[in-house]
Amino acid sequence: MLKLSGEALASELSDEIIDARTVRRIAAEIAESCEELSVELAVMVGGGNIWRGTTGAAEGMDRATSDTMGQLGTVINALALQDAIEREGRPTRVLSAIAMAEVCEPYIRRRAIRHLEKGRVVIFAAGMGNPYFTTDTPAALRAAEIEAQVLLKGTHSGVDGVYSADPRSEPGAIRFDEISFAEVMRRDLRVMDMTAITFCRDNSIPILVFDLMKEGTIRGALSGEPIGTLIR
Ligand code: UDP
Questions:
Q1: Is 138's C-beta closer than 6 angstroms to any atom of ligand 1?
Q2: What integer pLDDT is reported at residue 12 of this predicted model?
Q3: Which residues span the domain enclosing 132?
Q4: Residue 159 belongs to a domain with what CATH number?
Q5: For a surface tag, which of 54, 59, 124, 224 has the fewest beta carbons within 10 Å of its beta carbon?
Q6: Contact 16, 9 (CB under 8 A)
Q7: By the 8 A CB rule, do 16 and 95 touch?
Q8: Cα–Cα distance between 161 and 150 in angstroms, integer?
């Protein structure tokens, strides 16, 4: 299960919320890796490049409404990703937690598993369909539901793993190759939402934190190369 942040799809150079070149690069890596490594891959795509529920809530908006807007943003990203992966020759299915019959399939666990068995990249949209969450926790939940071996958390901020402190502000921070769930929680390391971290701990799903923006890292993560930080 790959958690792909919506912001990873945005352009650094312009105001484009979806940068075609970046999406193409990520899609190509996903399609090639699935083909060459024969792995089954599901993607939970975020929506932070379009809308975050907390942004509207901070302006006084109803939180649940604002979060629904965020979830709809993830559907836009999911369609962009679907289009790009299919242009690379890999079949995909978008499964949304919010029913949208004209646009994509609804999320049905058994159907997701069947798509994966048939070699389709499954793209989960609309998180888990509930407000008050980000897409980190649905990524962990769906990982458990489809019995994923690992949750790959791709970062887009240039941080290539879990550090003892934020390496962007503390140059002396050390990077862990491996770290336990307990240690992540004890140190309050914000690599993912804590709800997602505790869920993965309780359900024994390892998390690999790696730099998504560096070329070849998706493939590296999927083939078990020692990149990033493994939390288990
Ligand atoms: N969201 C939600 N429920 C979910 C998943 C997402 O309400 O199950 C909303 C929430 O407002 C969140 C937004 O969708 O801020 C976009 O998702 P996220 O912040 O995870 O995007 P990312 O940071 O991964 O780009």
A1: yes
A2: 82
A3: 2-231
A4: 3.40.1160.10
A5: 59
A6: no
A7: no
A8: 15
CA angle 229/135/78 to nearest 5° reads 105
Cβ–ligand 1 distance for 154 under 6 Å, the answer no
Q: Does ligand 1 lie within 6 Å of residue 130's CB atom?
A: yes
Structure tokens at 2: 């790959």
Look at the chain and report how many structural domains it folds into: 1
Q: How far is the CA of 215 from the centre of ligand 1 (A)?
A: 25
Q: How far is it, in rounded angstroms, from Cα 47 to Cα 62?
A: 18
Q: Is 155 in the pocket of ligand 1 (CB under 6 A)?
A: no
Give me the percent of the chain exceeding a pLDDT of 70. 100
Of ligand 1's atoms, which has the minimum distance to the CA of residue 136?
20
Question: Does residue 132 register a pLDDT over 90?
Answer: yes
Query: Model confidence over 156-171: pLDDT tens digits?
Result: 988 999 999 999 999 9
CA distances from 102 to 6, 14, 99, 191 (A): 23, 31, 9, 35
| Ligand 1 contacts CB of residue 46 (under 6 A) | yes
Helix then strand count (H, E) for the chain reads 8, 11
Which tokens hold the place of 108? Answer: 């049905």
Q: How far is the CA of 119 from the centre of ligand 1 (A)?
A: 27
